[in-house]
Protein backbone atom coordinates (compact mmCIF):
# COMPACT_ATOMS: atom_id res chain seq x y z
CA UNK A 1 0.00 0.00 0.00
CA UNK A 2 1.04 3.63 -0.10
CA UNK A 3 2.74 5.47 2.76
CA UNK A 4 -0.23 7.81 3.18
CA UNK A 5 -2.66 4.90 3.44
CA UNK A 6 -0.42 3.08 5.94
CA UNK A 7 -0.05 6.18 8.12
CA UNK A 8 -3.78 6.89 8.07
CA UNK A 9 -4.82 3.31 8.79
CA UNK A 10 -2.17 2.92 11.51
CA UNK A 11 -3.55 6.06 13.16
CA UNK A 12 -6.60 3.99 14.01
CA UNK A 13 -4.65 2.15 16.77
CA UNK A 14 -5.79 4.42 19.64
CA UNK A 15 -9.38 4.32 18.42
CA UNK A 16 -9.22 0.53 18.23
CA UNK A 17 -7.66 0.30 21.72
CA UNK A 18 -10.35 2.58 23.15
CA UNK A 19 -13.15 0.60 21.53
CA UNK A 20 -11.75 -2.83 22.48
CA UNK A 21 -11.04 -1.72 26.06
CA UNK A 22 -14.58 -0.30 26.22
CA UNK A 23 -16.12 -3.53 24.92
CA UNK A 24 -14.27 -5.49 27.63
CA UNK A 25 -15.45 -3.08 30.31
CA UNK A 26 -11.89 -1.98 31.09
CA UNK A 27 -12.39 1.69 30.28
CA UNK A 28 -15.43 3.91 29.84
CA UNK A 29 -15.77 5.48 26.40
CA UNK A 30 -16.52 9.04 27.42
CA UNK A 31 -17.46 11.83 25.03
CA UNK A 32 -14.14 13.69 25.58
CA UNK A 33 -12.12 10.52 24.85
CA UNK A 34 -14.07 9.87 21.69
CA UNK A 35 -13.82 13.53 20.62
CA UNK A 36 -10.06 13.50 21.28
CA UNK A 37 -9.54 10.35 19.27
CA UNK A 38 -11.58 11.75 16.37
CA UNK A 39 -9.66 15.06 16.44
CA UNK A 40 -6.33 13.23 16.40
CA UNK A 41 -7.55 10.94 13.64
CA UNK A 42 -8.46 14.00 11.56
CA UNK A 43 -4.96 15.33 12.18
CA UNK A 44 -3.38 12.04 11.15
CA UNK A 45 -5.49 12.11 7.98
CA UNK A 46 -4.29 15.65 7.25
CA UNK A 47 -0.68 14.51 7.61
CA UNK A 48 -1.30 11.43 5.49
CA UNK A 49 -2.80 13.53 2.71
CA UNK A 50 0.18 15.86 2.93
CA UNK A 51 2.59 13.12 1.80
CA UNK A 52 3.36 12.95 -1.90
CA UNK A 53 4.97 10.36 -4.10
CA UNK A 54 5.47 6.70 -3.23
CA UNK A 55 3.70 3.67 -4.56
CA UNK A 56 0.00 3.56 -5.23
CA UNK A 57 -2.32 2.08 -2.67
CA UNK A 58 -3.82 -1.35 -2.93
CA UNK A 59 -6.64 -2.95 -1.02
CA UNK A 60 -4.57 -6.00 -0.01
CA UNK A 61 -1.95 -3.79 1.63
CA UNK A 62 -4.67 -1.71 3.28
CA UNK A 63 -6.25 -4.87 4.72
CA UNK A 64 -2.88 -6.07 6.04
CA UNK A 65 -2.33 -2.73 7.83
CA UNK A 66 -5.90 -2.84 9.18
CA UNK A 67 -5.26 -6.36 10.49
CA UNK A 68 -2.08 -5.10 12.13
CA UNK A 69 -4.04 -2.30 13.81
CA UNK A 70 -6.61 -4.76 15.17
CA UNK A 71 -4.03 -7.22 16.50
CA UNK A 72 -1.81 -4.54 18.03
CA UNK A 73 -4.82 -2.95 19.74
CA UNK A 74 -6.00 -6.34 21.00
CA UNK A 75 -2.48 -7.11 22.26
CA UNK A 76 -2.28 -3.71 24.00
CA UNK A 77 -5.56 -4.22 25.83
CA UNK A 78 -4.69 -7.82 26.74
CA UNK A 79 -1.21 -6.79 27.86
CA UNK A 80 -2.63 -4.33 30.38
CA UNK A 81 -3.37 -7.10 32.90
CA UNK A 82 -0.13 -9.00 32.25
CA UNK A 83 2.06 -5.87 32.29
CA UNK A 84 0.66 -4.83 35.67
CA UNK A 85 1.67 -8.15 37.27
CA UNK A 86 5.13 -8.68 35.73
CA UNK A 87 8.19 -6.46 35.70
CA UNK A 88 8.57 -4.50 32.45
CA UNK A 89 11.87 -6.12 31.50
CA UNK A 90 10.52 -9.61 32.24
CA UNK A 91 7.35 -8.97 30.21
CA UNK A 92 9.29 -7.64 27.20
CA UNK A 93 11.83 -10.46 27.36
CA UNK A 94 9.14 -13.14 27.20
CA UNK A 95 7.23 -11.25 24.49
CA UNK A 96 10.32 -11.01 22.26
CA UNK A 97 11.34 -14.62 22.98
CA UNK A 98 7.88 -15.83 21.97
CA UNK A 99 8.07 -13.78 18.76
CA UNK A 100 11.58 -15.07 18.04
CA UNK A 101 10.47 -18.69 18.45
CA UNK A 102 7.38 -18.14 16.33
CA UNK A 103 9.31 -16.54 13.47
CA UNK A 104 12.51 -18.62 13.71
CA UNK A 105 11.69 -20.77 10.65
CA UNK A 106 11.45 -17.63 8.49
CA UNK A 107 14.62 -16.26 10.10
CA UNK A 108 16.61 -19.37 9.19
CA UNK A 109 15.55 -19.07 5.55
CA UNK A 110 16.55 -15.39 5.40
CA UNK A 111 19.87 -15.80 7.26
CA UNK A 112 21.08 -18.27 4.63
CA UNK A 113 20.37 -15.79 1.80
CA UNK A 114 21.84 -12.73 3.55
CA UNK A 115 25.01 -11.31 1.88
CA UNK A 116 27.05 -11.06 5.11
CA UNK A 117 30.22 -9.67 3.46
CA UNK A 118 28.34 -6.70 1.99
CA UNK A 119 27.16 -5.39 5.38
CA UNK A 120 29.19 -2.29 6.34
CA UNK A 121 30.01 -0.92 9.79
CA UNK A 122 27.24 1.63 9.22
CA UNK A 123 24.77 -1.21 8.68
CA UNK A 124 25.88 -3.00 11.86
CA UNK A 125 25.81 0.21 13.93
CA UNK A 126 22.35 1.03 12.55
CA UNK A 127 21.16 -2.44 13.57
CA UNK A 128 22.60 -1.94 17.06
CA UNK A 129 20.98 1.50 17.43
CA UNK A 130 17.64 0.23 16.15
CA UNK A 131 17.74 -2.78 18.48
CA UNK A 132 18.62 -0.80 21.60
CA UNK A 133 16.61 2.40 21.15
CA UNK A 134 14.05 1.71 18.43
CA UNK A 135 12.94 -1.69 19.72
CA UNK A 136 14.04 -2.61 23.24
CA UNK A 137 14.00 0.94 24.62
CA UNK A 138 10.70 1.82 22.96
CA UNK A 139 8.94 -1.34 24.14
CA UNK A 140 10.31 -1.08 27.69
CA UNK A 141 8.98 2.45 27.89
CA UNK A 142 5.66 1.47 26.30
CA UNK A 143 4.92 -1.44 28.62
CA UNK A 144 6.17 0.37 31.71
CA UNK A 145 3.71 3.16 30.90
CA UNK A 146 0.93 0.54 30.54
CA UNK A 147 1.45 -0.25 34.23
CA UNK A 148 0.75 3.37 35.16
CA UNK A 149 -1.81 4.60 32.63
CA UNK A 150 -5.03 3.35 30.95
CA UNK A 151 -4.37 1.45 27.71
CA UNK A 152 -6.20 4.01 25.52
CA UNK A 153 -4.10 6.88 26.92
CA UNK A 154 -0.86 5.01 26.20
CA UNK A 155 -2.02 4.12 22.68
CA UNK A 156 -3.01 7.76 22.02
CA UNK A 157 0.67 8.65 21.78
CA UNK A 158 0.77 6.74 18.47
CA UNK A 159 -0.60 9.95 17.00
CA UNK A 160 2.72 11.63 17.71
CA UNK A 161 4.53 9.31 15.30
CA UNK A 162 3.50 11.15 12.12
CA UNK A 163 4.38 14.49 13.73
CA UNK A 164 7.78 13.29 14.93
CA UNK A 165 8.51 11.59 11.62
CA UNK A 166 7.74 14.81 9.76
CA UNK A 167 9.84 16.94 12.12
CA UNK A 168 12.77 14.53 11.76
CA UNK A 169 12.28 14.64 7.99
CA UNK A 170 12.59 18.43 8.11
CA UNK A 171 15.70 18.28 10.30
CA UNK A 172 17.50 15.40 8.58
CA UNK A 173 16.24 15.52 4.98
CA UNK A 174 15.31 19.23 4.77
CA UNK A 175 11.66 18.53 3.99
CA UNK A 176 9.51 21.63 4.08
CA UNK A 177 6.60 22.49 6.39
CA UNK A 178 3.25 22.93 4.72
CA UNK A 179 -0.03 24.36 5.97
CA UNK A 180 -1.54 20.86 5.95
CA UNK A 181 1.29 19.63 8.22
CA UNK A 182 0.74 22.47 10.70
CA UNK A 183 -3.03 21.82 10.75
CA UNK A 184 -2.50 18.06 11.14
CA UNK A 185 0.03 18.46 13.94
CA UNK A 186 -2.25 20.92 15.76
CA UNK A 187 -5.25 18.56 15.47
CA UNK A 188 -3.21 15.63 16.78
CA UNK A 189 -1.97 17.58 19.80
CA UNK A 190 -5.46 19.00 20.43
CA UNK A 191 -6.92 15.49 20.28
CA UNK A 192 -4.37 14.19 22.77
CA UNK A 193 -5.19 17.07 25.11
CA UNK A 194 -8.96 16.54 24.84
CA UNK A 195 -8.70 12.76 25.31
CA UNK A 196 -6.46 13.18 28.34
CA UNK A 197 -8.45 15.92 30.08
Beta-strand residue percentage: under 5%
Largest beta sheet, briefly? none
Radius of gyration: 18 Å
Shape from CA axes?
A: globular
Question: What share of residues is helical?
Answer: over 70%
In terms of structural class, how would the helical and strand content be classed?
mainly alpha
Estimate the mean pLDDT confidence. Answer: 80
Let me know the number of strands.
Answer: 0
Quickly count the helices: 9
Taken in chain order, the helices and strands follow as HHHHHHHHH
Q: Which regions are unreliable across 5 or more consecutive residues at pLDDT < 50?
A: none
Euclidean distance between termini CA atoms: 35 Å
Give a written overview of the molecule.
With about 200 residues, this protein is mostly helical. Helix content is about 80%, strand content about 0%. The protein has 9 helices and no strands. Helix 1 packs parallel to helix 4 (about 60-85), helix 3 (about 30-50) runs antiparallel to helix 9 and helix 5 runs antiparallel to helix 6 (about 120-150). The model has no long low-confidence stretch (mean pLDDT about 80).
Amino acid sequence: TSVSHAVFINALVPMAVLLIAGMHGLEPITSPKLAGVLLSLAGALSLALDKTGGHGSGWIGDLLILGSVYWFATFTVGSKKIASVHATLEFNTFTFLAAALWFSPLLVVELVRLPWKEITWLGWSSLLYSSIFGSAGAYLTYYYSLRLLPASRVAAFHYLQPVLATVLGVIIFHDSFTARFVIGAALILAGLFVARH
